[in-house]
Design brief:
The protein has 306 residues and is an alpha/beta fold. The chain contains eight helices and eleven strands.
């Protein structure tokens, strides 16, 4: 794997990438697993077999990185890497989920129930011939649209409420109004790291640290994350663990921790350039040759020795 110096790839005007089917992954003949070059010219990113995103809640960077309350998260940072300078867009929670998945706030400003008819990452993934799943802990299923659902036993971790505001796929009418597409949103207990190309994991309000401690969220990740990183599906793949917002107003939504894990990364890797949720969206889109949505066109690209 490359261990070249880390850098920010600035956004430069270029033709809009065309969504293309994922090329078949071919194992390297050597012991290390090499990633195929990206179909987006000049991005410098690999074509990940799978992309996993776990979203946690409402904790500032300094409460996570280096904290004795988060030993497992910090072990992942040491084993893999992190983005050190990522800031959320705004407060409260939900607009940040919309930013990450659509490239803009789309008029959202509260933790309400929104029905947005806008292009989004989930639509892009399907249009490229890939598949997606959202594993929302406690989600009742069947295109459930109410704001909240009571806590039920669902996979790893403690009991906690499901809330629609943390499940961005349900804010897009192209999904919420289509039962066959809603079926891509399921409870956590059926999690399968090989089920789809893109998998978003939304813990309940206790396991995501929203209504609990840093330690509670760290314990959840300690139980859950090995299902991804110890799986054969993790080869040639990447995991992002991020937060929706911090608890300060720095640069809009606060300074937040974001862990990046991919096989073969140089331990302790850091991306130190300026970044936002739009940078994460841009990086996913470029790696898979998808058109850039909204603010992703001018965001930085997250470059690491993946």
């Amino acid at each position: 794997m490359s261990t070249a110096a880390l850098s920010v790839v600035p956004a430069t005007p270029s033709p809009t990438p065309t969504a293309v089917p994922r090329p078949a992954a071919t194992p390297s003949p050597t012991a290390s697993l090499e990633l195929t070059a990206s179909p987006t010219p000049g991005s410098g990113l690999p074509v990940f077999n799978h992309i996993y995103v776990i979203i946690l809640e409402n904790k500032e960077y300094g409460r996570i990185v280096g904290s004795s309350a988060a030993p497992y998260i910090n072990s992942l940072i040491a084993r893999y890497g992190q983005i050190t300078n990522l800031y959320a867009e705004t407060h409260p929670s939900e607009p940040n989920y919309i930013a990450l998945t659509s490239g803009g706030l789309q008029g959202t400003s509260t933790d309400g129930s929104y029905d947005l008819s806008v292009p989004n990452l989930f639509d892009q993934i399907e249009a490229s011939g890939r598949t997606w799943r959202t594993y929302a802990q406690g989600y009742p299923g069947d295109c459930y649209k109410p704001y909240i659902a009571d806590a039920v036993v669902d996979g790893t971790g403690a009991l906690g409420d499901y809330v629609r505001k943390h499940n961005p796929a349900m804010s897009y009418t192209s999904i919420s109004g289509n039962p066959s597409r809603c079926a891509n949103i399921t409870k956590l207990e059926g999690f399968d790291p090989a089920a789809a190309d893109f998998e978003m994991i939304i813990p309940n309000e206790i396991n995501d640290m929203h209504s609990s401690s840093v330690g509670a969220g760290d314990e959840f990740l300690k139980e859950f994350v090995p299902q991804i990183i110890d799986s054969p599906a993790f080869a040639r793949s990447v995991l992002f663990i991020t937060f929706d917002e911090g608890d300060s107003n720095d640069q809009g939504g606060g300074h937040i921790a974001t862990i990046v894990a991919s096989p073969g990364m140089k331990p302790g890797s850091q991306f130190t350039g300026p970044a936002t949720h739009y940078s994460m969206l841009r990086t996913i889109e470029l790696a898979w040759g998808l058109p850039l949505l909204g603010e992703a066109t001018t965001a930085s690209t997250i470059t690491l020795p993946y």
